[in-house]
Amino acid sequence: MKNEIIFNLLKVHQRIENACKTSGRNPADVQLLLATKTVPADRIRIAIEAGETLMGENKMQELRDKDSELKHLPIERHFIGHLQTNKVKDVLKYVSCIQSLDRLNLAEELNKQLLNQNRKLDVFVQVNTSYEESKFGLEPSTVLDFIKKIKSYETLNIKGLMTIGLLDVEKEKMIPSLRLLRTIRDEIYKEGIEGLQDLKLSMGMSQDLELAIAEGSNMVRIGTSIFGNRFLGKEIWNENITE
Ligand SMILES: *Cc1c(COP(=O)(O)O)cnc(C)c1O
Predict the structure, then answer these.
(1) How far is the CA of 126 from the centre of ligand 1 (A)?
(2) CA of 197 to the centre of ligand 1 (A)
(3) Domain limits of the chain?
(4) Distance, CA 151 to ligand 1 centroid (Å)?
(5) What is the distance between the alpha carbons of residues 126 and 196, in angstroms, rounded to a whole number?
(6) Which one, 124, 156, 183, 194, has the greatest CB density within 10 A?
(7) Are 101 and 90 in contact (CB under 8 A)?
């Protein structure tokens, strides 16, 4: 198990490097985040001991269950799943960043809890760039307005935009939803809003890592290619599965 994870990590880093080379980008501008839903803590630990520093969970329950084994390790934990407002307080115990900020009442609740705790939090605004109904995220045309609104919350550090691209066997079908995230970012840049001149793009998964890097990704979120297939019978991009 250990060797397999380490070998897979090497392969993923190689893929990132190759993709950067192909698109003339600096590998230092692309971070790897371990997508660890359903992955037991002992496996995650192997990746951390191999030098990984970023992980993302989709569910509050999993953050809690794995916390005792992971909290002393040098790993930054992000939340990348759909976040229900009533779970904000709990999730904040474990993470330093929420990548799935997708609505105003969630921003309000985060702000409220963060003010109570006298702290700030990194956030990515999640955009539904594939226009799939099954996916969470803001409708692309509403992102600029949304960002202008949440900018007034000083508790939120807006780090960038996140999307789950359209997955397909055909490459040509996967590119537009990745490219769109960059277009939206560039449109935000054009507004020249102070504090919003360096936004990162969190996009790219096991299947579309190379394409995402070619489209400007700064953070790829990889699960399957590192930890193997998840045996759930059902895919969980979101929290539609009840806890
Ligand atoms: C599961 C998940 C990933 C990783 O997907 P893989 O195909 O396993 O690499 C990335 N982002 C989010 C939001 C996820 O839920």
Answers:
(1) 14
(2) 27
(3) 2-236
(4) 27
(5) 16
(6) 124
(7) no
Greater confidence, 195 or 234?
195
In DSSP notation, 181-236 reads HHHHHHHHHHTT-TT-S--EEE---TTTHHHHHHTT-SEEEESHHHH----SSS--
* pLDDT beyond 70 at 233: no
pTM of the model: 0.94
The pairing of beta strand 54-57 with beta strand 121-126: unpaired
Q: Are 199 and 185 in contact (CB under 8 A)?
A: yes
Mutate to test the pocket of ligand 1, among 36, 55, 80 (most ligand atoms within 8 A of CB): 80
Atom of ligand 1 nearest to the CA of 225: 9
How much is the mean pLDDT over the chain? 94
- Note the pLDDT tens digit of each residue in 127-167: 999 999 888 999 999 999 999 999 999 999 999 999 999 98
pLDDT digits (tens, 9 = 90+) for 62-75: 999 999 999 999 99
Ligand 1: distance of its center to the CA of 25 in Å?
A: 23
Pick the CATH number of 2-236 from 3.20.20.140, 3.50.50.60, 3.20.20.10, 3.10.290.10: 3.20.20.10
- Is the C-alpha dihedral spanning 138, 92, 158, 176 positive or negative? negative
Nearest CA to ligand 1 atom 2: 35
Chain-centroid distance of CA 215 in Å reads 16
| Residue 65 phi, psi (nearest 5) | -65, -35
Atom 6 of ligand 1, nearest CA residue:
223
Q: Are 142 and 185 in contact (CB under 8 A)?
A: no
